[in-house]
Amino acid sequence: DVQLVESGGGSVQAGWSLRLACQATGYTHNGYSLGWFREALGKEREGVAAIDSDESTAYAPFVKDRSTISVDKAKNTMTLQMNNLKPEDTAMYYCAAAPRTMGWGIPPITFFTSWGQGTQVTVS
Question: Are strands 67-72 and 77-82 parallel, antiparallel or unpaired?
Fold first, then answer.
């Protein structure tokens, strides 16, 4: 089974940056997609960014100009660099994985088959 462990969350001030990381273990598929989702209090989970084994990337409009998603294949780690954080970025951030490449845009929640436990990001 694929296991995903997130790290890098924290409490920061508006305008600061954070680098979220997701370590994946147990993955055996050549083709894959990895994504970041977030869930704010009282709101539905929404896609933030995604990347696949073909190095295709997709970003939500609200982070597109201030975030970068990447994968370090040697370390089996996906990262999301988020800059110029805003209070509305406050949420629990989840890492997700799927055993196939994605099409255009961030795939829906149902596309992903493995999820991490989440890491909290609080921006004040």
Answer: antiparallel
3-class DSSP assignment, residue 110: helix
DSSP state of 87: G
Give 79-97 pLDDT, tens digit per residue.
Answer: 999 999 999 999 999 999 9
Contact residues for 114 (Cβ-Cβ < 8 A; gap 6+): 1, 2, 3, 4, 96, 97, 98
Which of 104, 110, 113, 97 has the alpha carbon at shortest distance from 32?
Answer: 97
Mean pLDDT of 98-108: 93
Distance CA 105, CA 117 (A): 24
Distance CA(41)–CA(98), nearest Å, equals 25
Segment 17-58, tens digit of pLDDT: 999 999 999 876 678 999 999 999 999 999 999 999 999 999
Backbone φ and ψ of 110, nearest 5°: -65, -15
